[in-house]
Amino acid sequence: DWNAEHIIDELIEGVRAQVGEGRVLLAISGGVDSSTLGLLLARAIGEKLTAVFIDHGLLRLGEREQVEAALRPLGVNLVTVDARAEFIGALSGVSDPEQKRKIIGREFIRAFEREAREYGPFDFLAQGTLYPDVIESAGGEGAANIKSHHNVGGLPEDLAFKLVEPFRTLFKDEVREIARLLGLPDHIRMRHPFPGPGLAIRCLGAISEEKLDILKRVDDIFVSGLREFGLYDGCSQALAILTPIQSVGVMGDERTYSYTAALRAVTTDDFMTAEWARLPYDFLATMSNRIVNQVHEINRVVYDITGKPPATIEWE
Ligand code: XMP
């Protein structure tokens, strides 16, 4: 595709011209935008890029390893930070959804600033801002979008970066095409959006390591199942939710009293309104069986058949 090739060359030239000999810091969220930006910057400036991936413990099963495996072999100088204990500690006992978001945003900035000092000094902060973010800065933004958590002008003096935003004129589809040419694996390139606060807002109420662990396993069965049955690309977003509901079930000769997991899949163009995905019953039956068989803490699975509005896509 000559067009995307040409755009890549132009973007690389632009970055080199802007950055010169400066050092650039990038937060990687594991989503397509920041991952693609990592690959582009690695090509443009090599070791002058430091990409930081903060594992806040609210990621999907195996996500950190997937990101490492995708980016390091393609030359991205990637630092992964295990900040799980800090985030989970800070969220302990907090059940209000907005409070959870605030705490995660604050902890993210704290961890990111610490890494910036550890590996710095840096001259530039790179962000995967897209054209739609430029024209309308509201909406779902990933953890890697520092601006959504933090006014860059308000960063501490020694972290007063200039911004590098090579994707400011691009749409998502164009970034995906660039990602393909740069060698980003399809499982990241075509990934559904994933919220910055991650699984914390899908683990209803106060989170715990145990609950997150249950949710990760349910989510992995559902999302892997969608891929296996060829249904993933037909959904705009698919998620599992761990509800605080415990109910009676039966397993062998024994009664159980365990959690209910909810599955949600939606189709949408803009995430402002959405329809619940009409997934085949047989597929849902398979998912339900797998989940209750493999995740012993779950004895009931429900499928969310609510549109947005009135419901949101996330449950918190
Ligand atoms: P709702 O639940 O509002 O979600 O229908 C719409 C889209 O936004 C994502 N979302 C978030 N993304 N931080 C994010 O980065 C958040 O706090 C957040 N809340 C919702 C959600 O996953 C969906 O794609």
Automatic annotation (TrEMBL):
Source organism superkingdom: Bacteria
Domain GMPS ATP-PPase residues, every copy: 2-191
One Gene Ontology term of the molecular function aspect: ATP binding
Catalytic reactions of this protein: XMP + L-glutamine + ATP + H2O = GMP + L-glutamate + AMP + diphosphate + 2 H(+)
GO terms for cellular component: cytosol
Binding site for ATP: S29, G30, G31, V32, D33, S34, S35
Pathway(s) the chain acts in: Purine metabolism; GMP biosynthesis; GMP from XMP (L-Gln route): step 1/1
Record's keyword terms, sorted: ATP-binding, Glutamine amidotransferase, GMP biosynthesis, Ligase, Nucleotide-binding, Purine biosynthesis
EC number(s) given by UniProt: 6.3.5.2
Complex formation: Homodimer.
Function: Catalyzes the synthesis of GMP from XMP.
Name listed for the protein in its UniProt record: GMP synthase [glutamine-hydrolyzing]
Organism of derivation: Deinococcus hopiensis KR-140
Portion of the full sequence shown: 190 to 505 of 505
